[in-house]
Amino acid sequence: MKKTRPFSGNLLVLLPIYTFIALFLTHFALSAAMLLTFSFATGRPVSFRFMIPPVPLLIIISLAAGFLLTFLLNRIIFRPMKTLVSAINQLAKGNYNVKIHMGNIKELANISESFNRMSEELANTEILRTDFINNFSHEFKTPLVSLKGFAKLLKNEELTNEEKNEYLNIIIQESSRLATLSSNILNLSKVEKMCIVTEQKNFDLAEQIRRCILVLEPKWSKKQLDLQIDLQELSFKGNEDLLSQVWINLIDNAIKFSDPGSSVFISLSGNQKQIVFQLQDQGCGISEDKLPHIFDKFYQCDTSHTTDGNGIGLAIVKRIVCLCGGKIHIESKPDSGTKATVILPCQAS
After folding, report:
1. Is residue 101 assigned to a domain?
2. Both 63 and 139 in a single domain?
3. Is 288 in the same domain as 335?
4. CA dihedral 212, 216, 217, 221 (to 10 degrees)
5. Kind of pairing, strands 226-231 and 263-270?
């Protein structure tokens, strides 16, 4: 493959030549104009031999000007561009920590700032991607290993009926866990691809929340939780199936992390501008360092995995709320419970 010479190197030859031609033509044009003006004013004929400039002097001036321009262009434009190209090549190789500073000129400083911001975003994306793959692998591998292990144990003919039933129950639980995980991943994939909410209609929001509470009745009854409910009768225009996932995930989390016998407060209120849903539990709470990550996919505050869950629910919740034009905010402190607030725009009265 034929190699091309660097553009800055070509300038060392081209600029002096172009400068010489430009100076020569400029001198010729100005001299011609001055002589013609003088001839017209005095009526005397002029000799155009005086228009020919001293070539050696022009060559020296052209060379000096050309080298000076080449130096300035190389320092101001080409050197920063080489820095940028080198940094882009490093990004392409996977080095997302590369940073550049191309100078204090406003335009170059803006390019540097934009590049560094892009590099930082790519680094964050790579971290999230790696964490997602690691957590995803863990969440699928754990129940599969359990299924395989207990299925092998069931082949033992010496097992008692009690042991067989115990192993079968574990297999059923792990199968349900895999089914739930698969369903959540499909839901997350679905809502992440959505740009607009379709199939919108008016429905009773308070009634929908009551139905979600009833769906989860076996869970909160088992923990003997005291549910204190205060729901204002409100109508909302949106996708009913999507929004029900928000309430089920939030209420299920509150039940999951509440202490047995404690209280859970659920309220719904609104005005002409917005609708506010609040959910307060008296559970273990979330530490300050973990709070910023609770909406990340597969992130679990309980790193011991002693509680059921796969870290997808809140990611689904946030995406659906954003699609509805709303906001969600979580407040929590260790051993002080957690408060979730969902604010939706009042699209229908």
Report:
1. no
2. no
3. yes
4. -140
5. parallel
Q: Which two tokens stand for residue 142?
A: 């754990």
Length of the chain, in residues = 349
78 and 184 co-located in one domain: no
Residue 49: inside a domain, yes or no? yes
Contact 16, 61 (CB under 8 A): no
User: Is residue 298 included in any domain, yes or no?
Assistant: yes
Buried b (16+ CB within 10 A) or exposed e, 318-349: bbbbebbebebebebeeeebbbbebbbeeeee
The number of distinct structural domains making up the chain is 3
Output the tens digit of pLDDT for each of the chain's 349 residues. Answer: 444 444 444 544 555 565 556 666 665 566 666 656 656 666 666 555 544 555 565 556 655 665 666 666 655 566 777 788 888 888 888 888 888 887 777 777 888 888 888 888 787 777 666 766 666 666 677 778 888 888 888 888 888 888 889 889 888 888 887 877 777 777 777 776 767 777 788 899 999 999 999 988 988 999 999 999 999 999 888 888 888 889 988 999 899 888 899 999 999 998 888 999 999 998 888 888 788 878 876 666 655 444 555 567 788 888 889 888 899 999 988 888 899 999 998 864 4
Give the residue numbers spanning the domain of 138: 130-193
| CA neighbor of 178 nearest in space, from 207, 139, 137 | 139
Domain ends where: 80, 95, 110? 95
Could you tell me the end-to-end alpha-carbon distance of the chain, in angstroms, rounded to an integer? 71
For the question of whether the overall pTM of this predicted structure is more than 0.85, the answer is no
Q: Answer for the pair 264, 258: CB distance below 8 angstroms, yes or no.
A: yes
Check if the beta carbon of residue 342 is closer than 8 Å to that of residue 349: no
List CB contacts of 137: < 8 A, sequence separation 6 or more: none
What are the φ and ψ backbone dihedral angles of 155, each rounded to 5 degrees?
-75, -10
**Residue 11, domain member (yes or no):** yes
Query: Do both 168 and 232 map to the same domain?
Result: no
